[in-house]
Amino acid sequence: MTTSHDTRLGRLRRPEYTGENRCLPCTVVNVAIGAVGAVGVGALVAVELGAVVLVVALAAIWLRGYLVPGTPEITKRYLPGRALRLFGKGRDTGPPAAIDAESYLSSGGVLVETPDGSDLAFAPWFESAWQTHLAALRDATEGAAAAEDTASAETAPDGTRPASSADVGALARLTGVDEDELSLRWRGDAGFAHADDERIGHWESRSAFLADVAADSALATHLNDWASLPLVSRSGVLGALRLFVERCPTCEGTVQLEERVVESCCTSYEVVAGRCTACDARLFELDLPPSLAGER
């Protein structure tokens, strides 16, 4: 039964900013503003009135998601990126790769100049080795995934679903970490890898994951120092290699570059991304330099 009280509250609620859509940085900023205002009223007028102000402010934030109109824009403009990253909202660029990926790949003969000298591309030997490993990986992981119990892939309350055991095995070979210590879960298209409780990597899509695993196998066979590089350096090199992928590792569709603005309530940034035109899988996403962004 719906009461008039429920109806009035429903009119005040902003579902786009509350519940699962509530933004933690915006909430923190508004609670802080409300608390400062309540303390000020309590000090200048009366403690009791300050308490009333705080209760009203908290009620407004609970119902509407914010206290101050325009909060998303205020948070986006003035809250430092470092603070946003504490809430998982900022751009998480990860640790530095500690290696110049392009120089490493060029000196190793993995990347070569295109015939017109205007760009770099996979060397023929690497293209062939990468495709061979990729085909074997697709067959192994897709066959294993089809054979596994579909109930094990149910979505968890946090919105993630587990990867197949074959993908976890591929992750173990990629990272050199024991399979029993690893977990790989997908949220939407994106994949997140953990070793025990520490996050050790993420991928924009399963296509990006397959590209890295196949490239790692190809490089391990042909480059003597590959296995001795730290994981963070290998991750940087593999990510750089994806910039030169022309065919989707999953469906073999054409990978096309696109520029777009990525926005949430707290952040806004321009990126250039590589996306498959057939299955829509994203291979990579890079911040667009301000000099180029301004030319759009």
- Low-confidence stretches at least 5 residues in length (pLDDT < 50)? 1-6, 289-296
Distance between the termini: 54 Å
| H/E element sequence | HHHHHHEEHEHEEEHHEEEH
Main sheet specs: 4 strands, antiparallel
The chain-level structural class is: alpha+beta
* Strand arrangement across the biggest beta sheet: 3-4-5-6
What does the average pLDDT come to?
Answer: 78
Name the beta content range: 15-25%
Counting DSSP H or I runs of 4 or more residues, the number of helices is 11
Number of separate structural domains = 2
Can you describe this structure?
- With 296 residues, the protein is an alpha+beta fold.
- It has 2 domains: 83 residues, no CATH class; 183 residues, no CATH class.
- Helices cover 46% and strands 17% of the residues.
- It is built from 11 helices and 9 strands.
- The strands form 3 sheets. Strands 3-4-5-6 form a 4-stranded antiparallel β-sheet. Strands 7-8-9 form a 3-stranded antiparallel β-sheet. It has a two-stranded antiparallel sheet with strand order 1-2.
- The N and C termini lie far apart (54 Å).
- The N terminus and C terminus are likely disordered.
Question: In brief, what are we looking at here?
Answer:
This protein has 296 residues and is of the alpha+beta class.
